[in-house]
Amino acid sequence: MQGDTRTGLLETIRDRRAAIEVYVREKEPASRRLLTISIVSSALAAALTAGPAFGGEPFAETVRAGLSLDRPSKVWGLLCLGALVVSVTAAVSAQLDKSHDLRSRIGAAEAAGVMLDGLRTRLEFGGMSIPDAAQEYQDILAGIPFVHESSADPTGDPQGDGGFGSTRRRARLRGWQFGIVAVLAALLLAATLVGYVRGLAGPADGDPGTTSTPTVSGTPNPSPSPSPSVQEAVFAGRTGDGRASLAIVVLAGRASAYLCDGRELEAWLEGSVDDGRLDLTDAAGTTLTGTVDGDTLAGDLVAPTLSTRFVATVATEPAGVYRARTVIDGVEALIRWVVLPDWSQVGITNLDGAPSDAPPLQLPGGTFTTADGTTHRAERISP
């Protein structure tokens, strides 16, 4: 009778040991998966917001140009949405791992397994009394109430009793869902980087497929030739590195251009237009050279703090160059803006030689309000 009791207790210990092995085998990958998803998602959220945070509007404009989007706001919107989704994924993954306390439970289960192995050896070969063994067995189980004997059959395979199988399936499905979110965010980040690199590169000579600016429809003409619009037109665009905007006004063989980054860089350039080619300079040594091809003006811009390609397209009102003279705090101020075809704008207020942000220009009317609450109207420079 005592031998049967000892044998039954040994079998119970073996079954419980098998249940612990199943629990560890199931929960350890789940814990690692949740931790990995949380870390990767947090990193992706930081990466998605890094560009807009540090690059600001020039970053968004460069990506827009590289991906041929119509508005920079789409870049901001997609990146912010992606960062929001992966941030939520990281928070939920971390909270699931924490609320289930998987790491500490796995450690407790592994320790209980080692103690059960020792108990079984002493009971089987060491002559340990059955009452002492039963009491120690109960003490060990008290430390792992989350591991149930029904979790495994004699072969060690998970069973559906008590919902363990369905819980495992739900956990795996949740892990896959979080993983898919992380992969989609990584693809969004990769697309943003590709757009940024393409935007920095600007249009490739001889490769019309790489430019993000509109081209003239109709019969292709392999050699650039001036059109009648070259004699009278307004062009607007951005530098290839996305740092600044510019607008160029062409009239009767002469051209004027305004370059501005909205903070401190600005230049007013003037020069000639000869057979569709522009050659403009300013007093500080900034130069702009470019060639008109249909509705597109592309070339090179060299300033003391900037050297880059640029692309501008024919701009209809309200796009173009605006300027206004007013008095601020008793000092005459010159305010100029560049308005792009998508109505985005940058401008600088020059107050006795000190640059500062220009007040927002209300479009299409061209009015603006100064700090004292006075409303003024800016002049759009036309050919």
TrEMBL record:
Domain of life from the UniProt record: Bacteria
TM region(s), chain numbering: 34-55, 75-96, 178-197
Region annotation (Disordered) ranges: 203-232
Keyword Transmembrane helix set for record: yes
Composition bias type Low complexity, residue spans: 208-220
Swiss-Prot/TrEMBL keywords: Membrane, Transmembrane, Transmembrane helix
Name used for this protein in its record: Uncharacterized protein
The species this protein was found in: Geodermatophilus amargosae
